Amino acid sequence: MKLSYQDLGQGIFCIDTFYYRPNLDGCYLIQQGDEAALIDTGTSHVAPAVMELLAIRGLEPEQVKYVIPTHVHLDHAGGTGQLMALLPRAQMVIHPVGARHMNHPEKIIAGTIAVYGEEVFKERYGTILPVPEERTIEADDGFEVALEGRTLRCIHTLGHARHHFCIWDKQSRGLFTGDTFGMSYRELDTEQGPFMILPSTPIDFDPEAWHESLDRLLTLNPTQLFLTHFCQVDQPALRAKALHQEIDDYVAIAQNAGGDQREQQIRDNLTRYYQKKLREHGSTLNDQEIETVLGMDIDLCAQGLDIWLKRREKRG
Fold first, then answer.
1. Among the CATH numbers 2.40.50.140, 3.40.718.10, 3.40.50.2300, 3.60.15.10, which is that of 141-316?
2. Ranges 97-101, 166-170, 259-263: which has the least confidence
3. What is the mean pLDDT of residues 291-304?
């Protein structure tokens, strides 16, 4: 994989992982003096590009102290084991609920192969290596690590996944948000700014908890967001307002769907929802171009909402 990255200042670099397409998925290098950390890892295919950027920045593999996946979904954590094998002194910092999946990834591997098939799995994710338990730090809410005095704080954020946390970097006043602060693709930017998308992917969508997570993150008064999907956006309070509305809209879309084709109905309604919102945002993309950018995400969101409804129905 070729190296493509952006220098965002404050020692922060966003690396494009080329997951499906350019500018969809990223991971981050934070360099502070002679020490470094990685936040999210993309898939195992990204490891050579990360090592190339370390060399460009004058860093030896031994100078990376931490590898920090925000959660264990494979577009965020699939390359963790490969990178840990290449970074001999690094420790993995992970949410306690997600640790076992990184130490023993057999369940994730089997589940993903069951969905996509072995050939697609290998092409998309490569080889997923386990992370040794002795090199694992299970980060409780508020846990902090330091890079030459620069503090990175882990903040547990429910809503997208039970094993999710965000990283607060006080020095840059930035949040590394994984999926909690949504997705924002540069193809959807207009004169009105970035366009926010809520990723209610299977299986842990929790609207009430997600509202709470967004509100809690805003109490830190961040000035910028470092999204895995994709790169840097500003005005966190404005972005949170859009996502709060989308959470409520998703709930309404799900609850208004029914019948044997409920998931497809949800997908169709989400497609129309985002077409309308993008028009209001000033986007000039046609329906097919919107499908190209958002189709995969809308599929996953529809699955997530359908599973959320099934859980609610099961609980009565």
1. 3.60.15.10
2. 259-263
3. 94
Q: Euclidean distance between the first and final Cα of the chain, in Å?
A: 48
Residues 6, 14: contact at Cβ < 8 Å? yes
> Does the bond joining 121 to the residue before it have cis omega, within 30 degrees of 0?
no
Three-state DSSP class for 54?
helix
Domain ranges in the chain are: 1-94+96-138, 141-316
Q: What is the reported pLDDT for 132?
A: 97
pLDDT beyond 80 at 164: yes
Cβ contact 27:228 at 8 Å = yes
Q: Of all helices (H) and strands (E), which one includes residue 237?
A: helix 236-255
CATH-assigned architecture of domain 1-94+96-138: 4-Layer Sandwich (3.60)
Q: Please give the C-alpha separations between residue 314 and each of 24, 257, 284, 304, 307, in angstroms, as whole numbers.
A: 35, 17, 42, 15, 10
Return phi, psi of residue 269, to 5°: -70, -35
CA distance linking residue 105 with residue 37, whole number of Å: 22
Angle CA 307–182–147, to nearest 5:
120
Check residue 242 and give its pLDDT: 96
pTM for this entry: 0.95
Rounded Cα–Cα distance for residues 215 and 182 (Å): 14
